[in-house]
Amino acid sequence: MQIIGLGVDLADIDRVARLLARYPRFARRCFTEHEQAYAERFAHPARRYAARFAGKEAVMKSLGTGYRRIRWRDIEITGGGKPTVLLTGTAAARAEQLEVTRVEVTITHTDRQALVFAIALNE
Length: 123
Hints:
Blueprint: E1 2-12, H1 13-22, H2 25-30, H3 33-40, H4 45-62, E2 75-77, E3 85-87, H5 89-98, E4 102-109, E5 113-122
Antiparallel strand pairs: 1-5, 2-3, 4-5
Helix pairs in contact: 1-4, 3-4
């Protein structure tokens, strides 16, 4: 197993909540339908959205690029139990270019912040 890249990101939950309230398209633009459905099941969906947002940023960093080269919805982070990263489109193409076979993430959050580490691997 070889580590191809490592990424980390921290998201402010209140900031994400303000974005969701002010720009209703934000959720549709950045998150897959599955991610939206997962977040909306909870009393405080901004926590889940912030964790997914930080996760997407961390995955992009682990792939050695930023949001200008990978579409937000091309990275999906599943919820419930151990998070799983699904790559499609531009994210999958970048992973293939780097010979990344899987990306692992770990997520934690407090009432104020969500923190995600991502590691891109070649097995």
